[in-house]
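Morning!

This is the sequence you dropped in the shared folder:
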Amino acid sequence: MKYSEMLKKSKEKGASVDLTPSYFEFKKEGTNIVGRLLGFSPVKSGLSEGFYNQYLMDTDGGLMKFHLGGAADKEIVAQLKIGEVYFIEYLGKAKISGARSVNKFRVMQIDPSLSEAKDVPF
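The structure's back. Tokens below.
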């Protein structure tokens, strides 16, 4: 069977999975996302010489990618586990030394016993 035929049959059966994430942005206080963390990877910042993480999460609305910022990465990344379900809420900006500010987030891990095992394609 040709690949194009496989694609057609897979779509007809509803058996294909779109792996293209949408970009989620934390625009204002209270903006939040909930889903299963699939992974994260470092991205070089265009504003500074540092790096920040880009996260990939499976949500009720499909795959979403987003970033939290370098300061938040340093606070939470060691606690995150790939495959667990998290709620992340933007709390706004906090002023730090000088005229600088950082984004603040509330991150909650959802009770793993409530989660059904799910095959993750990564």
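Headline: The longest strand covers residues 32-44.

More detail when I'm at my desk.
O.
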